[in-house]
Amino acid sequence: xxxxxxxxxxxxxxxxxxxxxxxxxxxxxxxxxxxxxxxxxxxxxxxxxxxxxxxxxxxxxxxxxxxxxxxxxxxxxxxxxxxxxxxxxxxxxxxxxxxxxxxxxxxxxxxxxxxxxxxxxxxxxxxxxxxxxxxxxxxxxxxxxxxxxxxxxxxxxxxxxxxxxxxxxxxxxxxxxxxxxxxxxxxxxxxxxxxxxxxxxxxxxxxxxxxxxxxxxxxxxxxxxxxxxxxxxxxxxxxxxxxxxxxxxxxxxxxxxxxxxxxxxxxxxxxxxxxxxxxxxxxxxxxxxxxxxxxxxxxxxxxxxxxxxxxxxxxxxxxxxxxxxxxxxxxxxxxxxxxxxxxxxxxxxxxxxxxxxxxxxxxxxxxxxxxxxxxxxxxxxxxxxxxxxxxxxxxxxxxxxxxxxxxxxxxxxxxxxxxxxxxxxxxxxxxxxxxxxxxxxxxxxxxxxxxxxxxxxxxxxxxxxxxxxxxxxxxxxxxxxxxxxxxxxxxxxxxxxxxxxxxxxxxxxxxxxxxxxxxxxxxxxxxxxxxxxxxxxxxxxxxxxxxxxxxxxxxxxxxxxxxxxxxxxxxxxxxxxxxxxxxxxxxxxxxxxxxx
Length: 596
Known about the structure:
Blueprint: H1 5-16, E1 46-50, E2 54-59, E3 66-67, E4 88-92, E5 98-116, E6 125-132, H2 135-138, E7 160-165, E8 170-185, E9 190-203, E10 211-214, H3 217-233, H4 250-263, H5 269-280, H6 291-308, H7 311-316, H8 318-329, H9 354-378, H10 382-395, H11 406-415, H12 420-428, H13 441-450, H14 454-470, E11 488-489, E12 500-501, H15 525-534, E13 537-541, E14 546-549, E15 558-565, E16 568-576, E17 582-587, E18 593-595
Parallel strand pairs: 11-12, 14-18
Antiparallel strand pairs: 1-9, 2-5, 3-4, 4-9, 5-8, 5-9, 6-7, 6-8, 10-15, 13-14, 15-16, 16-17
Helix pairs in contact: 3-4, 3-15, 4-6, 4-15, 6-9, 8-10, 9-10, 9-11, 11-12, 11-13, 12-13, 13-14, 13-15, 14-15
InterPro entries: 6-hairpin_glycosidase_sf, 6hp_glycosidase-like_sf, Bac_rhamnosid6H, Bac_rhamnosid_C
Protein name: Alpha-L-rhamnosidase
GO biological process, one term: carbohydrate metabolic process
């Protein structure tokens, strides 16, 4: 009996990607017997408690509703105390509500730990706790029935919580992305005492092996902010956002994986996430139900193998990769027209430009199939390598114009179906940071690098990503538009009358108003870009066995940094001498060959 290869492959995929475990076996007390076997897993993430850096605001109309709040910015110990000394006192009256808002200084992922003292009630007291990525979000009302500007949502993570809290005890609340917390005492004619109100930071405790330091502190801060944005999203699996989009999105993963390779090197979160994606979206489905995201899956694999040289992991995904090539090939006609799927998605800001999206989507197919061809040679599958190349050849017979869409022209330049210099002159570099986006901005920068426009790209990084920093960002956002800066207040201040709220008054598509995520991993592209093009790290042979150092400092006087490889950390320093010539100092680990 001849069993079709597609059925064999589907069975193998089901076997390979079922039952894998991210977490290690938990060590639990011996009182737990054999009936618990297989029912526990260790939490490999770390918890850190952080006291507020400052009190943003309090509602204390008569000067007697809140007192001694300064104790809450002091270090804590998570131990309740019986009594009333050295505590913040909050009293709500019949007609007024005691409220207070804290700033923890940085975007965090986690919750809130409250340590309570004595209360005027023996019963628990009702409070409202609001987490916010901005001061405006912390003060906002929640609307889950519809998404609209000026309102928050509880999608993916509960951030607006009504609950009872004990007296003389401790309670932990929340699991979301936030920087600010507001507490309202809703119980009328009631006094409560707060000993501590500490944020719980839940994160992956790993070293920053990669680094970037230059003569421009603004670029240094942008590099580190992009690194931290992705770090927060490295939870059990790799998310796109810690407040919203706490799920696996394959397209969004690509800039994140580039950042992880530049900052952390190898980390299990990437292969574990790719494994889970195959389990969640078996063929013939598309990753996340989106054909474009299956293309990103192939590109990610090529990049990950290039950096780590992990052939065993690539072989684990071999059947899925080959099956995906079969699926894509079956939907491309000889003349270059294709019908992968009706839904064509690049990123949200490009969505209105249908013709441009179509051109960019087709370029993404070419890029993905070129990477697939390379993967097939590595996997010793020459027939599939030829099939992938045939897809590329067919797609190249029918090239659509970019329709003045920066996203499309950037992909076309990267895929090699449009001259990069022409793409930048016609659209990508026109207007500088205008029409850049946080996700596809990475590919716009890559197109500029391919065109030799390094200084233009550096200037845009300063302007666009730096513009978020100017508004108080400590992580990079789901979307950003330079036009938002006009007459807008910073995210870490109460919005004065007559000014726009940089968070609540903007946003579109699926992220209007405060639903907009202010910590989105797909926005981290400049971190990877600066490592690749300013430090000049280009991997020539898989596993970082050969690395070419080709720096482009632009107007920088010097730059230094590190780059993680499977063999150890590569150390680099470039300095311009009096004639503008770059003098380099490079210290490579054993097993890494450096070429210039």
